[in-house]
## 1
Amino acid sequence: MSAAPSFPFTALVGQPRLQLALLLAAIDPGLGGVLVSGPRGTAKSTAARALAQLLPDAPFVTLPLSATLEQVVGTLDVEGALRDGSVRLAPGLLARAHGGVLYVDEVNLLSDALVDAMLDVAASGVNIVERDGVSHRHAARFVLVGTMNPEEGELRPQLLDRFGLFVALDNPSDPSVRAAIVRARLAYEADPAAFARQHADQQATWRQRLQRARALLPALSWSDEVFQVAATLAHRAQVDGVRGDLVLLKASRAHAAWLGRECITPEDVHAVADMALVHRRSASSPAPAPQPVTNAARDWGGAPEALTGSVGDAARASEEGAVAADGHDGWGALPPQPVDMMGSAAWKGWPIKKA
């Protein structure tokens, strides 16, 4: 008996920013993954699994909380060594996720070593294993999607900074949106195959559009104006280091590719600024002024206006406050630093870096 089809990505309701962040990470996995924070039942795992359906022959690999470092990165093939004396690698979950999606639920409950290893590979696309007498490297280009409920514990600020994009979800406040979400879910559960067929054409359109964006990505470059806008936003946000600038520029390039643009524009930078900088901002940084939102995405590929990226959304997210690293470079091995996750009125429950 064949497995039921996954919930279609194009049928997700009420989470346009999450959809956009996942699409950007799929266009350029080198962004370093997406961290999604939110309460239970806000479609975090559904969206991650649905994303894999838009990628060609993409595996969907879930990393369990009980996984060891050896199971994740790979280790010596003991059975082969005992059988014929050969020394070779037994691939781990990172190898299995190549070309697809690596989903990590409750990433804040994993050990720092595991999260650090995944983030390294997600950013570089290469897994290097040197352990147990084995020295091996292999391609591991995947979309890393980590999810967490901040009520269940914090993620070290140094690791938080290394996630490329960040999206905070909240329970829908509009009853009509809640009703639409429930209606779609019940329709899917009643007949998954029929529901998938209903959205097949739009899924195919987005799948083709995603492939075009990936092909277009290398041809796009950043102008001096785009560099200046990105640097200005990162400076105003008072982010530590330049990782935020790099992610912001890469995300703006992916956004331009998604819209089918011939060049990257300042509008692309503003459209993704909240996702690239909000978890890196200082509490004292000023919120950017709202700017007009274009409808370019509607004019190319038939995407809904919700996925054009909104400068207004970026401004509102900035006005709500933010989280950032603690003033140290995330590449260093620093001791854990407890953070009061619940007592802060910061952005969606995240702590604020001291000025």
## 2
Amino acid sequence: MKLIKKTKRRLLLASPVAAALTATMFWALAQPAPQPLASLFPAGALLYLEAKDLGALLADWNGSAEKRDWLSSANYEAFSRSTLFLKLGDAQSQFATAAGVPPDYALLSSIAGSNSAAAMYDIGKLEFLYIARIASARAMSTSLWMTRGTYQTRHAGNSDYFIKEDKTLHRVAAFAYTGDSLLLATKEDLIAGALQLMARDTVPSVASEPWFTDSVQAAGAGPIPNSQGDVRLVYNMARLAGAYQFRSHWVQANVPELRQFSSGVADLERTRGEIRERRVLLRATPVEIDGSNESATGQLLAAIPDDAGLYRAWLHPAAGQAEQFIEENLFPPSIATAAPRSKSAPMVAETAEAGNEIDLESRIDQRPITDNRDAMKPLRDRLAAAKIDAMLDISSTSVDRDQVFVRPHFVIALLAGAPWDADAIRADLGSAAEGVWSNSATATWRTGANGVRELEGLGKLAMAADGKWLVIGDSAEMVNTVFARRNRAAVAGASYAAGWRHARELPNFERMTKLIDFPQMPVTASAEPIPGGEPPFFSGNIASLGRTLKRIDAATIVVHDTGAMLRESVVYRLNP
């Protein structure tokens, strides 16, 4: 009997607890799922950027050696004088005037939430919308929230927002906080539209636009917010390519090549020792390509030397591309590049009289070295007629034994659909070199190790051929290294693949460019900017950027082309 009473008493005590837990569970299930951030941005954006944890990324950057090194570098010195930097500085000052708070690191760190996103709507006017998931206590302590008394209060959706406009500067600052989200915009329509979307009004959003949905669908499962990824960038390439500011300031300067794409997405993921980036670019009009079998590039990639500084491999290169690379890398500019066409009328100049002292260096007893711009035609025609399945371009630098000069070396490997005529290729190369490196009417080749042939003359040229393999370079050692690996098992192929060994090549790059810019300067000295002057572009500006990124050991990119889209995988391997 006592046992029954104790059991009843326990049940009576447990019932309220169970009821509360049950009620809490049903209440949680009844709450609507958090809206994806992309669905809260009004339609019409040029690009959309979302971070899984912006606050953590910002803290990592602020405490990094890369930030410290970059701010003290010649690269930053040059950038701080650029037109783009000055324009951004003016925009920052104007926003500070309109908002009443400076848009500095203190403000950014205070509003950087966990899951955060920003969308750019107009590059020229810097019209953007920013939304971040932030706890209410933190949002209420920001300098932006504390100045809300100086703003006008307006309403959209189910929430109030605060807006201030400087009509003289034509700048707008608007912000709001609702639920667990902080919103900041430079245009009233954007923040009002976002609040309407939060209220689940029927308003078009970025997430409903084809350029966004098609890109995200093609990329597959995205990194935001439940996977291991850190950042996602989705962009409307069709509209970006039409923006004057993008065309003017895009550092790659390849906007004409980008016009074939309608949109794209890039996902960034940080792992131990690596930073990985996955990209997808959608073509506006799909093209037919013969890219189903990428094994040819896989064979060439397996032949890359371990100490190669830079390599690039193409599947089915365009006709003439191989010949152009051979001209530019292995022959003097005098025959490799035609003189630029001038749009101005020639200047009238007085000619020297016969027998003038300026003619004393001209030899009359030897055939002159000619500048024959058609010297490459036989090789050009032969390569154009060949069916080249894949091409590999390799370059490296090395310091001479005297530890003064740095010499670059180039090798090009071609894999054809049919065996090469080695004798004909040697004859074509010799014809191109004739009159440039030697006055001899017949080029002479001597046989080196492993069947590698070297052209005798002032210039250095080596080649080796075996069946469908053809390797040409300016270093017999490099040609031999690549040629000796031709029978290795193929690796995974690609439409395009490239790699850059940053840690290996940076010291040689600095040494070589310093000798060019400052022949009297010790190669160990740093080419810092002259006080009040512009830093040397290569030995100062670019070299300092390379030193800033010294934690990167190497970078690789692999591209697969389906005709409708490009899939790119970029890996930055970091030093320990």
## 3
Amino acid sequence: MFGFFCIKTTYLSLLLSISFTLISLVSLGQNAILQNPEQSGDRYFLAEQYFRAAQYYQLALTRDTSNHQIAIKLAHSERNQFNYAQAAEWYQYAQNLSTEFSADAAYYQSLMLKNIGRCREAYPWLDSLLNSAEPEFRELRVKAQQLKQSCQEIDLLSIGVKSFDVTLLDSTVNSSGYDYAPVVMGNDSVLLLTSTRFAGKKKISYRFGENNANFFAFRLQGDQYVDTSTFVSKINTTASEGSACFVEARREFYFTYCGNDQHCQIYFVAHNGKGWTDPTPLPASINREEAETKHPSVSVSGDSLFFVSDRTGGHGGLDIWMSIRAAKDQWLAPVCLDSTVNSKFDEVSPHYHSQQKVLYFASNNQRGFGGMDVYAVSDFTNREARTRRHLPMPINSSADDSYLALGQQLGYLASNREGNFNIYRFKKNQNQNWLQFLSGIPVLPSTPESDVTMITPSDKIRRVNQVDTEAYDWIWVNAAQHKRLSSGATRFILNSDVNDIQMRQYQQSQRLDTGVQKLEPMKTLVNVGSDKMLLLTKFKTDSIDTREASIVNGKVATGTNQEPLAEQTIELRGSAGELLKTSTTNENGEFKFVNLPGNSTYSIALTSDEALDTISVSDLVLQTKPEYATPQTFEPIYFNFNQHELRPESAEVLETLAKFYQSNPSISIEINAFTDSLGSDVYNVLLSEKRGEAAFNFLISAGVDRSALAINANGVSTAYTSTNAYVSQQLNRRVEFEVFGLDRLLPEETTTKILRPNIDITQLLEGTKMTREELSELNGRPLDVLIPYKPIRIYKNEITDANSLFYQIIDIN
């Protein structure tokens, strides 16, 4: 059936390679050849020692040459060593041995053909798999369809003209071993790389059959690379080191260390002015004994760390994680980046370009050209605007392309497009930024690239163009309070060098009457690279009656005509710089925060893409109002497990809340978002933030003024419980609404309950005294099917035997 596209390599040559493997194993004195070589291969495969596993599978095939399952295992071993051509041969061998169609072999055979640039030969395999009707092949058919679409895209894109040259470096840099993970240092003058070339190491990596890896460094002199590996001599050991990054601002070097028979971990060395310190592992918040931790990339300011790990809590396979530096040698618990970056496949080799806020990485997801492909997430610090791009040829090819490294004008890439992993170089035009260049986007000569933002000098604006760790403190952010970790933004705040005494004197002089005072605009700018934050004001509530909650209002404008700055995120921060609430400006540039306790210190900050030197802040007023002291609670909404999309009945609740606001436009609404107790603290904070934003966006679209809303992403909640554990978790997957500024009671006509199992629609209608139409309208969907343990809205009228219909909700606050 498949004979018409047999691989040209004959079975004789394959069997000859098995004979050589037998000789090799005998020469190594392996007693296991007298036992079960297939079991030995399985053991090494599970240990990810694919080179050794392949040796034993080949030996097993000499004893049972008709066993197609062993041939498939051998093909898997070669695939995991990136030996795609050999893997394709063994998948073909397995198919010809078997009288039955092997979906597994067909899929991976197609993948290997794609990875060696022979997509057209893969189509018959893919079509055979897609035409199969067996239920157990369903998942493979989905992957096969994606693979076919990817091959078709490759066929179309390969017709285009290459936009720039990617050049293979000569034998001075590249070797007969694996050469990968380039690092650019010293304004393009130094190239550091990882290589398995022989460097006196006798230990062999049985994962890929290569020497253990070492660092090698080369200085670029003219067009020639000169070996200058003195710097890394202290780091290299008999184990494997590689995949590094250098933070010039902090004189820190981070790298991957893989001890013999141990999981990889991230180490670092720092220059103390006299020399380099001894290699030290990052703390347990980053490294895990039970998981791989590798491929570090640190932002130019040294406060954000990206790395690769297969630890639990990811999307599947290897994922890219991120952590924020809390102090000099302290890192917060990392968070796994979202689906814009990660997938159920492998994502590796992150490279964060701080100046342009672009995260580059490699992935072997099925939409690529083949093997690993390089992707870019632009606008990384803006979660709403961030975009994932699949970089075109010639950066990507049908082989494995990864480890992108970008300097000032020179860029490097690791690829096995010519059979072995080697380093390739390319050079961008001076008038292009890297993302434009790599994406093939032409730019006009009049738009030079600049890594330093030019700001008009002003008495009230402070310019900082480099990191000064003595003058500035990194914000200490508890994981459960870090509301915006997923944005990847560099977050820092001025140290207490603002003259608090003068500020308080000014505030006292500007006091209007009891409980009302003007605030002094600060407009203090911190700028590191292209990360900017503008402090609008700083104030205390110690002069406010502690029995009442404070309210702060303001207005921001921009440009020579001082146009209102609308739809901009405003942050309320505490005395230690921690993020407390977020809000946005309305169409008039106005913002408002309510419910500020007394005897506390606050600051208000703005992050914007506007020219910050043209921004002004005015009408800053701190006051109290009795009607804002005690909030009222509106009906909460609930979410499905690990989801932030609005349920149908939640949309009905929000529609009702929006209509109530339109009748009472002076109120303020705080959105308090929560999750259940499953998952890590950091992940749950991010999930709660997404849930809060889902409610926020709906209310905005329904006509609620932006300045009337604020989001508090609280993470885990255990406030509500029930006699059933599933119900308790469902109750805590919620968003609550606190309404401030009302001089009358909120209407409470509806409520949300959790339905018990085995309740039919007739029982529900009789017990709630409602019609089917009323229930459908309240819940935003036809109630033909009742789902137990899920939220359902009802009217708050007299319910007959409520405990038999719904679970009892217990507030344990």
